[in-house]
Amino acid sequence: IEQVPVLVYEQLCKTNKIAAYSNIRSALKIFFDKFELSLQRLSLKLDQAICILQVFENFMFIYSINLSENNLTDGIFDQLGKLCLDQLKSLNLSRNKFTSNGIRKLFEQKMMNNLLVLDLTGNTDIDYVTLTFIRTRHPNLIVYH
Predict the structure, then answer these.
(1) Domain of 108: which CATH number?
(2) Cβ neighbours of residue 124 under 8 Å, at least 6 residues apart?
(3) I need a labelling partner for 74 at 20 to 30 A (CA). Which of 6, 66, 83, 103 fits?
(4) pLDDT tens digit string along 3-22?
């Protein structure tokens, strides 16, 4: 089963005519140790990040997603919204280019009742109203901004 996500990723890259990178293959293999998807500081383009997330559309247990420091934009949230995030405990979206609209859209689509930590540090276009909305829906959530 560990090879399946790598093969799916490679096929999606081929279909979408984008390069498949070895460091992303490694991140996909590491996923099976802790069910944590760590894609920080990979300088991902939006289409690459979407392709990687498509690999995990049918996974029921994703405990942590780290997309920090990739300069991603709100376009990623449509694909992130397709994932099963019921078991997600940590979501690190820090140091990207996300806005209030994108963050709010994600939290309107997904309940993420098990989410404990949300890191939005360095996303300067997220307003107080959006942070209040998130904290109201998830009163026990630790939000870094």
Answers:
(1) 3.80.10.10
(2) none
(3) 6
(4) 577 777 788 888 888 887 77
